[in-house]
Amino acid sequence: MFALSAELTFYVPQSTSLKDKRQVRRSLIEKTRRKFNVSIAEIDTQDVLQTLTIGIAVVSGDAAHRRNSIDEIIRFTEEHADAELTDVQIGE
C-alpha cells in the first residue's frame, strides 16, 4: 500500500468574508471529491480571509498510480477553483 498527500494553498482575492471563502472551499472540495473520490479537507488558515489551504490524501496499491493521481488532482483543482493556486507541497 502506498500513500501520498498534498497540501494546496490558494489565494481567494474575491473573498471579503469567511462566508465567501467557505463557498469557494465547499465548491472546490465537492467537485474534487465527486470526480476523484479522495480524502480532501481544509487543513489550515481557516480564519484567514483570502487564503485557503486544502489537504488531499491518495492511497493506492501502486506508487506510480498514486503520484499520477495527485498530479491530476492538482491540475483539476487549479483549473476548477475560483481561486489562484499559489503553493503545492507533496509529502508521503
Helix content: 40-55%
Outline: elongated
Q: Whole-number average pLDDT? A: 94
CA-based gyration radius? 13 Å
Structure description:
The protein has 92 residues and is of the alpha+beta class. The chain is built from two helices and four strands. It has a four-stranded antiparallel β-sheet. The chain is elongated and about 40 Å long.
Core attributes:
alpha+beta; 2 helices; 40% helix; single chain; 92 residues
Please render the helix and strand layout as text.
Layout: E1 2-11, H1 18-36, E2 39-44, E3 51-60, H2 63-80, E4 84-91
Antiparallel strand pairs: 1-3, 1-4, 2-3
Helix pairs in contact: 1-2
Précis, in short:
With 92 residues, the chain is an alpha+beta fold.
